[in-house]
User: Fold this.
Amino acid sequence: MSSAQSATVRTRPAFVSTLLASPIFGPAAALVLVSVFFAITAPRFLSPGTFSLILQQVMVVGVMAIGQTLIIVTTGIDLSCGMLMGLSGLLMAGFAVRGGLNPWLAMLLGIGVAVLFGFLNGALVTGVGLPAFIVTLGTMNIAWALKRIYSTSTITLTDEQAPLLFLGTPIKVGGTELPPPGILLLLILYVVAWFMMKYTAAGRSVYAVGDNIEAARLAGINTKRVLLAVYTVAGMAYGIAALLQIARTGVGDPNAGESSNGNMDAITAAVIGGTSLFGGRGSMAGTLIGVMIVGILRAGLQLMGIPTTYQVLVTGVLVIAAVSVDQLTHRK
Assistant:
């Protein structure tokens, strides 16, 4: 056996060990298994149209999951994300259609409201010292009430509000229909978030705060500033998700964010993707995989004719399973 062959044999176990130890190996393996399962049980699953539909369905949840991941990494959880997304989108549509504002200004104002709520969540968690669960439960109900106060009916966008519809409109090239630009925006946001979390001091500070907030404080990290920034950025993510929501549906809907596609899918995607509820561990790559798992599950179960009620049941079981694995890993 040559020296090169010997080196290959010696390094192969190390490579396999590294692969198995990767935090995204589990989510990636689950993604493959789920895809294979539905490819066998639902023949239409492999059609290009199904894949395009999955991508469009995960746009909104995918962006919300970025904010949710940041918060969960710091040992928090945000129950308001779905409602804030719904409120932001309703206001965007309302400002543009009923208020007659420039669509770009309406967009900024709608996102600004979500950012403001994110800042409020962070300020209450860091300044008053309230648990994130209680704070976001409160702002969730406030956002729900504000939606109902502002409008109880859908607000339909028209061609006059084209900038608000662009990201959700499929692109036609010849006779081929390509996914909407919102998919590209989703990927760009994940690349930016991944780079920030992996290669910047800000990202390392987020992990440090989640791993041990007292140790982070002793190391000179302004933990309150980090947490405030995390919740504020999460609010921005919910606002961008709102833009994708109204771009995809063409309406500002007072019911948006209230179904299982609101809070639970974003939390589910983050947890299934390997983000630990104990804090200090998680990745944007894992969350993106988690988003795809959630999207494929929904699409696959729909193709199999499974009622929505049972789809939600499956999602709940997955969350419990993922958290149980996280608990066992944390104990070790």
User: Anything to note?
Assistant: Residues 58-262+274-285 form one domain. The first helix runs from residue 3 to 21. The mean pLDDT is 89.
